[in-house]
Amino acid sequence: MYRIAVVAKSLQSAIQIVERHSTSRSHILSTIFPHFEITNAVVSLKAVNPTPNPPSTMNTLTDLPVQSLLLRPLLPYTSPSSLFRTLPLARRNPTARIRCSIAVDSSATAISPPHAAAAAELSSSSNVDCVVVGGGISGLCIAQALATKHSDVVPNVIVTEARDRVGGNIITVERDGYLWEEGPNSFQPSDSMLTMMVDCGLKDDLVLGDPNSPRFVLWNGKLRPVPSKLADLPFFDLMSIGGKLRAGFGALGIRPPPSGREESVEEFVRRNLGDEVFERLIEPFCSGVYAGDPSKLSMKAAFGKVWNLEQNGGSIIGGAFKAIQGRNKVPKPPRDPSLPKPKGQTVGSLRKGLAMLPNAISTRLGGKVKLSWNLSSISKLDNGGYTLTYETPQGLVSLQSKSVVMTVPSHIASSLLRPLSAGAADSLSKFYYPPVAAVSISYPKEAIRTECLINGELKGFGQLHPRSQGVETLGTIYSSSLFPDRAPAGRVLLSNYIGGATNPGILSKTESELIEAVDRDLRKMLINPNAKDPLALGVKVWPQAIPQFLIGHFDLLDAAHAALKDTGFQGLFLGGNYVSGVALGRCVEGAYEVAAEVTKFLSQFAYK
C-alpha cells in the first residue's frame, strides 16, 4: 500500500481536519499572518506507486490546499516519538515565509543532497536535547561550545538558520586581489575567542594586528594619535593640559558624585573624566563600536566594566586597584598552553577573513546545521519540551526538543515568542537597531596624504570621527595595513562605516551617494583632494545593524526573562548580541555562558 509520510495520522483524518476548518481558514491565516498574502493556490503532490520496499520519503497526499499546510497545530503528528515529519510542497506561496534573519539578500535556496540526508538521519532519532534558532556567530558558537564542552549532557544539538548560509552579519568577500568584510571587521583576541579558534582548527589561520600601530581621532581637521600606553599620556595632542588634569583628578574621585539613577555614557564620562575625554575620545568610540548616540546609551549596559569600577571602588582608579587586589587573592587558573599568545593590545582576524570562523564551525557540526529552515511557530509540550515548526525546502518540518535557544535578533524573537508570552515579546520588541552601511573602497598608495604616512606607508588600525567634526562617516579601518593580503600591491583598502543612531537617513541614499559621502569625507583629512576617484568594491547596507544598549536595556532584558519564567517556559533561552554585547568577542564569550546555562538546565531536566 501507499506509505504516507505526513504529519496527519492518516489521509482521512487530514482531510477531515481541512474540511472542518475550510470555511474559516483564510480568516484564521489572515489573522495569524497579517503581513502575508494568502491565496487559494492548490498544491498537487504526486502519488507514488506501491513498491515492495518503498523509501521512507514517499508521500501520497494529493490536492491539499496550501493554507491547511500552514495550519500545523491543527494536524496531529503521527507519533510522539517522531522528531518530525515532512510534507514537500510542489508549489509554495513565496510570500508566506517567516525568516529568522535580517540580511537584505537572505533568499532561500533549494536544499542540497547532504541536508536531505541529514534530515532523513534526524528523523530516526528519538529526541533532540537543544535546538539553537539562528546560525549567526552566537548560535554557532553556542552549538560548538555544547559539542566540545558539554557533549556528555547535551549530545544532540541542532542549529537552524533561515538563510542559505551561516554566519549572520559576518560576510567576507574576496575578489580581484582584494579581501574585505561587509559586517564586523575584527575581534579582540580574548582567551574565549582563541579557544573557539583552536577548537575549530583555525589556530594557524589567525592573524593579528601590530599592537604598536597607532589609532587616530579626527580633531580640528587633523588626524591625531590616541595614547596607547601610560607613557604617552603627557605628550599626545588630542587633549589640552587642562583636559588631561581634569581627567586625572576625576579618575581619582575628585568629581561630582553619582546621580543615583542610571546614567548615560555621556553623563558618566563628563562627570568622571570631563568634557574633553567625552568629546574627543568616548563619543567617537561609541560611534565606532555601537554606531550609537552616547547621550542615550547606558553606561552600565554598554561599558559595564568601567561602570563597575566606580561602583566597587568609589572612583575609577579606586575600582581598578580593588579589582587588581581581588585578582591577586584568587589564584588564576593555568592558561591553556595550546592557545596563541597575542602581544599587547591588538585585534585579530583570519587569513581568509572572519567568515572562516562560522564556516569552520558549520563544517565541524555537519548535518546538525540546517539551512533554509524558516521557523514559523513554537509550542510547549505537556512533558516540558518544545515543538518547533519550520518551513524547509523539503516541506513542513516539526521538531521536538528539550530546550531552545533563540539567537535571532530581538525583533524576530519577539514575533516568534508572542504566541507564548506577550510580556516577553513586548520587551524584546523595544530594542533599537539603527542602520549602518559598510563601504569598502580602494585608492592607489600615492593618493594618501604625505603627512598621514609613517616611513612612507599608511600604518595604523584606523581612524574615528567625532560627530562635531563635520564629517558623516563614523570611522575608517585601514584594512590593508592592519592585516596581510587584503589588497593588491600598490593599493590601499579602506573599510568605512556610515549611518548609525545619529544618522538613520542613510537608508534613503543610493550606493553611489554613500560612496561619494565617504570619499568626500576622506579627502578632508586622509586622501589628497586631487586624487582620482576610488575603486568602489562593495556597499553593504544593514537596515537593522547593531542593537543599542540604551538606558533601561537591562530592565527590558530582565523583564523578558522574567516573563518567560513566570509563564512556565523554562528551557527557553535568549542569546545573541543584544544579550551578550555587540563585539564579536563578547558574542563568543556569551555563547560559552549560554551553553553552560543550557547544560545546567538539562542536567536537571526530567522528561515526562
Automatic annotation (TrEMBL):
<protein>
    <recommendedName>
        <fullName>Protoporphyrinogen oxidase</fullName>
        <ecNumber>1.3.3.4</ecNumber>
    </recommendedName>
</protein>
<keyword id="KW-0150">Chloroplast</keyword>
<keyword id="KW-0350">Heme biosynthesis</keyword>
<dbReference type="InterPro" id="IPR036188">
    <property type="entry name" value="FAD/NAD-bd_sf"/>
</dbReference>
<dbReference type="GO" id="GO:0004729">
    <property type="term" value="F:oxygen-dependent protoporphyrinogen oxidase activity"/>
</dbReference>
<feature type="domain" description="Amine oxidase">
    <location>
        <begin position="137"/>
        <end position="593"/>
    </location>
</feature>
<keyword id="KW-0627">Porphyrin biosynthesis</keyword>
<comment type="pathway">
    <text>Porphyrin-containing compound metabolism; chlorophyll biosynthesis.</text>
</comment>
<keyword id="KW-0285">Flavoprotein</keyword>
<keyword id="KW-0274">FAD</keyword>
<keyword id="KW-0934">Plastid</keyword>
<dbReference type="InterPro" id="IPR002937">
    <property type="entry name" value="Amino_oxidase"/>
</dbReference>
<feature type="region of interest" description="Disordered">
    <location>
        <begin position="327"/>
        <end position="346"/>
    </location>
</feature>
<comment type="similarity">
    <text>Belongs to the protoporphyrinogen/coproporphyrinogen oxidase family. Protoporphyrinogen oxidase subfamily.</text>
</comment>
<dbReference type="InterPro" id="IPR004572">
    <property type="entry name" value="Protoporphyrinogen_oxidase"/>
</dbReference>
<dbReference type="InterPro" id="IPR050464">
    <property type="entry name" value="Zeta_carotene_desat/Oxidored"/>
</dbReference>
<dbReference type="GO" id="GO:0006782">
    <property type="term" value="P:protoporphyrinogen IX biosynthetic process"/>
</dbReference>
<comment type="pathway">
    <text>Porphyrin-containing compound metabolism; protoporphyrin-IX biosynthesis; protoporphyrin-IX from protoporphyrinogen-IX: step 1/1.</text>
</comment>
<keyword id="KW-0560">Oxidoreductase</keyword>
<comment type="function">
    <text>Catalyzes the 6-electron oxidation of protoporphyrinogen-IX to form protoporphyrin-IX.</text>
</comment>
<dbReference type="GO" id="GO:0009534">
    <property type="term" value="C:chloroplast thylakoid"/>
</dbReference>
<keyword id="KW-0809">Transit peptide</keyword>
<dbReference type="Pfam" id="PF01593">
    <property type="entry name" value="Amino_oxidase"/>
</dbReference>
